[in-house]
UniProtKB/TrEMBL annotation:
Entry keyword set: Membrane, Transmembrane, Transmembrane helix
Ranges of compositional bias, category Low complexity: 506-533
Name listed for the protein in its UniProt record: Phosphoprotein phosphatase
Species, as recorded: Bifidobacterium simiarum
A Pfam family that the UniProt record links to this protein: PP2C
């Protein structure tokens, strides 16, 4: 544990906090989440795409919210350990959710949270959100940014002024989430003093406002809500391009501890405000949405940006503040199914006394987490099995389709015939003159008495070029070739000048040596007629 001061106030202090969060003029959604209660104040700045950042920051607030319980163990060391383990539990929940939903891969969040226990402040911090403490009119920056530019400042490579405009000023070196980074938060404990005022803020605020400006506003505006409103509005006017969130937490001495009816309702701001019912179930008391940033006309550029943002937002985006009751107080409809509220990956357990808890140290919560993890393993295995069965089914269907196509092609090939060579003679083949994957698609079905040697070379080359749709057609063509071979032999034996059918036939070697390249029935008929003269 870090710094612990020795002075202790004699009066029991209470925490009064409020928060204001605004999406800003540039971003399309608010990825900051904040909580302002009577025992806990926290700011989480999410990152990781359109859906990832708000999911991560929401999980972190939910994981910490159980510390708000009125019946929290009133021991400083115990609560400090609870805060550290809750931050680590949030880290595990974010990583687990990112693994189950690929669209959330790479999401993460900062965490800066403070709790008041036995007149001691317990602070948990990781990331580049900041915690400032105003004490006795002096502003103290309590946290150190876990960022790359802070590392450069610490090593003397750049100054504080240069860091504000550094191109890598948004690079964090420690953060919760789907990264290979140490997720353990810095934990510090210090004595609380009456009049202490905390400012917890995202880098959308402290990145554009000087510490001197923060000190002036925190010192001069006594009302916490007015102070938060002023700081957020000033950050936007100063040109902040990020979501802007401020949490103001004051240590006060209660005037009348018996008037519980007037205790303020815890507030949720930013992304987590869409999960009010879950928060109400975790802390088992009502939770309200944080007040919206008060309208400010600002500069013409700001008015144009605000107008453009309204045009692109849904009608339900600007909702009136609302209060969510815990499930123990909510009216349950007859047909409404009772469901266990969720904190992302950390289950909420209803104990025998009726209270709800999400404390990871609670044995029942620990058992519920293990049960949930086993169910997730079983679900993942079933999903893997279904995926494997689907892949096998697709492969089988493809193979059956290919087999069907192959069989259809083979059936068609066996209805075709062509002439080819077999054992030195012309044969009639059934099929087509090709092969598929080394398998021949034809076989001889009849042998003719036409020898291959009796055919001219060009006839041999073109013998199998023609396929026929029936055996009879192939047989008829074989008969034509047989007749033309006989006519060719007769023409070669006839002396030059001998007349056939009243015509002089030339039987010169050159003529006889160049027969028709394609035997035809017409040529066969002419040769047959000449022989009969």
């Amino acid at each position: 544990m870090a710094e612990t001061l020795t002075n202790q106030s004699s009066s029991a202090l209470t925490l009064y906090s409020t928060t204001v969060s605004d999406v800003g003029y540039v971003r399309s959604n608010n990825q900051d989440s904040s909580f302002a209660g009577r025992h806990l104040a926290a700011i989480c700045d999410g990152m990781g795409g359109h859906a990832g950042g708000d999911t991560a920051s929401t999980i972190a607030i939910r994981s910490l919210a159980h510390i708000e319980h009125d019946d929290t163990v009133d021991d400083i060391e115990t609560v400090a350990t609870m805060m550290e383990s809750s931050v680590l539990a949030a880290h595990d929940a974010i990583v687990g959710k990112a693994k189950h939903e690929r669209s959330l891969s790479g999401m993460g969040t900062t965490v800066t949270a403070v709790s008041l226990v036995q007149n001691h402040w317990i602070l948990a911090h990781i990331g580049d959100s900041r915690a400032y403490l105003l004490r006795g009119g002096r502003l103290i920056r309590v946290t150190k940014d876990h960022s790359y530019v802070q590392h450069l400042i610490d090593t003397g490579r750049i100054t504080e002024t240069e860091a504000k405009n550094h191109p890598q000023r948004n690079v964090v070196m420690r953060v919760l989430g789907d990264f290979d980074i140490d997720p353990r938060p810095d934990i510090s404990i210090r004595v609380a003093m009456p009049g202490d005022r905390w400012l917890l803020c995202s880098d959308g605020l402290c990145g554009v406002l000087e510490d001197s400006t923060l000190q002036e506003v925190l010192s001069t505006i006594t009302d916490p809500e007015d102070c938060a409103q002023k700081l957020v509005a000033m950050a936007l006017k100063a040109g902040s391009t990020d979501n802007v969130t401020a949490v103001i937490a004051d240590a006060t001495v209660p005037l009348d501890t018996s008037q519980n009816a007037h205790t303020p309702v815890p507030l949720a701001g930013g992304a987590v405000s869409s999960s009010l019912e879950n928060l109400a179930d975790i802390i088992d008391e009502p939770v309200a949405t944080a007040p919206a940033l008060e309208a400010d006309e600002g500069s013409p550029a700001q008015r144009a940006a605000a107008l453009a943002q309204k045009e692109h937002s849904e009608p339900d985006d600007v909702a009136a503040p609302r209060v969510a009751q815990p499930s123990s107080q909510r009216e349950q409809g007859v047909d409404e199914e009772l469901t266990m509220p969720t904190t992302g990956e950390i289950p909420v357990v209803q104990k025998k006394d009726g209270n709800l808890t999400a404390d990871p140290h609670d044995p029942e919560v620990a058992r519920a987490i293990k049960t949930q993890q086993r169910e997730q393993v079983v679900k993942a295995r079933k999903h893997h099995t279904r995926k494997r069965v689907s892949i096998i089914t697709i492969i089988v269907v493809v193979l059956v389709a290919l087999a069907g196509c192959g069989f259809g092609a083979w059936r068609w090939s066996q209805s075709q015939y062509y002439l080819g060579e077999a054992n030195g003679s012309v044969a009639i083949y059934q099929g087509v003159p090709t092969n598929l994957f080394g398998l021949s698609l034809s076989h001889p079905v009849a042998q003719t008495d036409i020898t291959i040697d009796s055919l001219p070379n060009n006839w041999r080359e073109q013998l199998s070029n023609t396929t026929y749709s029936s055996y009879d057609a192939a047989e008829n063509h074989a008969a034509v070739i047989r007749q033309q071979v006989e006519d060719l032999k007769l023409a070669q034996k006839t002396p030059s000048g001998q007349k056939f059918g009243g015509q002089e036939q030339s039987a010169s070697p050159s003529a006889s040596a160049t027969p028709s390249s394609t035997p035809s029935a017409t040529a066969s008929a002419k040769a047959s007629g000449a022989a009969n003269q």
